[in-house]
Amino acid sequence: MTEEIAPGGTPRTPEVDEVLRRIGRNLLLFQQIEHLLKHLMASSRVEGTLASMQSNLEERRTRFQKQTLGQLAGQFVDELLADAGERDAPDSAEEPWFSFGFTIQTDSAFVEQHTAEMKAVVDARNDLIHHFLPRWSPASSESTEAALAYLDEQRAKALPMRDRLQGFVKSLQDAATAHAQYMASPEGKREMQLSWLRHSRLVLMLGELATKTDREDGWMVLSTACNVIRQHEPTELVDLQERFGHRTLKKLMQATELFDIEEEPTARGGTRTIYQINPRFQLQISADPVAMDERGAGQPAAG
Fold first, then answer.
1. Domains and CATH numbers, the chain
2. Is the whole model's pTM more than 0.85, yes or no?
3. pLDDT tens digit sequence for 31-72
4. What's the CA angle centered on 87, arms 36 and 236, to 5 degrees?
5. Rounded distance between C-alpha atoms, residue 116 and residue 118, angstroms
6. CA atoms within 13 A on the CB side of 194
7. pLDDT at residue number 47
8. How far apart are CA 228 and CA 226, in angstroms?
9. What residues in the chain have per-residue pLDDT under 50?
């Protein structure tokens, strides 16, 4: 039977085997840390339409799977320990756009501490991979004892980082579960529908026009707004029922709950619809500016 040989050509002993066992143990620990970072980075932001969200997530996972531990450590600080802010839907989006983001609220002292501790983990992992073997002499009992002590100390310093990241993963999973439950609830579905209506280009244009009314009382005549929109974006007033689920523009505006809408008498004895942004809301206008001195022709479907 051939005698098994340890690194360096030395016969294996129980002490040498223990060094090898602890090397494997530590390598698995570093891999755990790396995989936790990959999971956090890949899952911390999900965005897209219902049709594209899953493929976007898979693309993000693939990208982070190719990152090294050092790269992941830096991106983790930049993206999860800092407020990345909200991301707007693409200008060309024609379907509801969803975005889920997860960040860790902390302070600069913790960020500095975490950065230093993560750097120590990365350095320790690189030292074990690239520099440990030349320093260890399996034939020397003193070298083997030093190696065992080194590996134990290395593990003790890396374990808190593994545990910290596991805590972050649990928080992420809890947040994702709570978000999914809310989106599936009647309240969540209603809020999603409201958000979709309020951020549609047509509603944003109506809001922008309301802020540019030339009336001293602050109200905007809906037929005037319709004529301006028809002049600049005629397709926005087409197929309201199919696109938004409301037959008329007035009903669509009521559904957004953003506007106060009233009927006022005209000089000829009729009535006309006027509207203004409800003071409770601060409408974020992202539509292109619309000139108020240009008027389109035709009668709007505003009844």
1. 14-86+94-184 (no CATH), 195-277 (3.30.420)
2. no
3. 999 999 999 998 888 776 667 767 777 888 888 888 899 999
4. 140
5. 6
6. 13
7. 74
8. 5
9. 1, 84-85, 87, 283, 285-287, 292-303
Angle at 157 between CA 127 and CA 37, to 5 degrees: 80
Length of the chain: 303
Whether 106 and 76 have beta carbons less than 8 Å apart is answered as no
Q: What is the pLDDT of residue 37?
A: 95
**Residue whose entry in the numeric block shows the structure tokens 């409301």:** 246
Q: Please tell me the predicted confidence (pLDDT) of residue 96.
A: 65
| Distance in angstroms between the alpha carbons of the first and the last residue of the chain | 96
Residue 59 corresponds to which amino acid? E
